[in-house]
Amino acid sequence: MDTMRDRFAPVVTRLLDEDPRVAVLLAEIGKDAFGEAIARHPDRVVNVGIREQLLVGAAAGMALTGLRPVVHTFASFLVERPFEQVKLDLGHQDTGAVLVSAAASFDWPAGGFTHMAPGDVALLDTLDGWTVHVPGHPDEAETLLRRAVAAGDDKVYVRLSVQSNRQGAALDGERFLTVREGRSGVVVAVGPVLDAVLAATEGLDTTVLYATTVRPFDAAGLRRATEAAGTDVVLVEPYLAGTSVAAVNDALADVPHRVLGLGVGRRELRRYGTFEEHAAAHGLDAHGLRERIGRFAGTPRRESARA
């Protein structure tokens, strides 16, 4: 099976052919995949070199001229390094772009911590007006990429990963999908952690929701699920643990509830290893999730802190 990033360049190349507003900005990373697009659209495919602040600034400039820029590099170089430009050139100037990242939280451990970005979604949460898509399969990535480019002049972040679920789902880019129904709590699985969550909750009487669009957060979908399954909520995200806990609390603010936020820990893991080993070390494999979800589900409400 191809990866989400394998799907990225062919999809965006077709969008360049279909829509004269679309432009692509690169910072060396990924340029080889756009050779055909550069030949056909040399004025709308720009490689700025290893200058990530310029990458975002140039995208904002193109947006001001009426173009729809698609901006691509590793997440740590797309959100963290040029964050001032994301905040000011896009946010303050109220211009739109589609930021498409690769490497996710730890997809390329051999690159070291400079190439890891578990805090990217949390960082964007400090800004207003961003839509955030976290596909869990290449087919979903294609759907959400097309939706992002077509989204007028909105600010959209699409988080690609080599980690993938075995099957893609039919998405509308807005609502959570109900994958399994139960009566004892709700587990929200974000993007590529769905397969691990399903394995971890096998035999548990829990509802499993699948989220690939996390901003805006589908508060109405979560509330509907808790009406039948109860208000114990476990949130499993493939980035910084607890990133969306506040969104869950806001969705359930008027009812007693508990929430457990699982994801990537803050402690830096300094051995390279593989992304599977990093996932296991952060408790995001099926075994680690089963242990923590089971412990949370088995804790009486009176002994746990209420949200």
Structural class of the helices, strands and pairings? alpha/beta
Give the number of domains: 2
Measured distance between first and last alpha carbons: 41 Å
Order the strands across the largest sheet as they lie in space: 2-1-3-4-6-5-10
For the record, what is the CATH homologous superfamily label of the largest domain?
Thiamin diphosphate (ThDP)-binding fold, Pyr/PP domains
Shape: globular
Please name the CATH architecture of the largest domain. 3-Layer(aba) Sandwich
Radius of gyration: 19 Å
Can you offer a commentary on this structure?
- The structure is a single chain.
- This protein is α/β, with parallel strands linked by helices and 307 residues long.
- The protein folds into 2 domains: 156 residues, Rossmann fold, CATH 3.40.50; 126 residues, 3-Layer(aba) Sandwich (Rossmann fold), CATH 3.40.50.
- α8 crosses α12.
- The C terminus is likely disordered.
- The chain has 12 helices and 12 strands.
- Helices cover 36% and strands 21% of the residues.
- β1, α2 and β2 form a beta-alpha-beta unit.
- The strands form 2 sheets. The chain has a 7-stranded mixed sheet, with helices on both faces.
- It starts with a helix and ends in a 10-residue tail after the last helix.
- It holds the Pfam family Transket_pyr.
- It comes from Streptomyces pyxinicus.
- This is Transketolase.
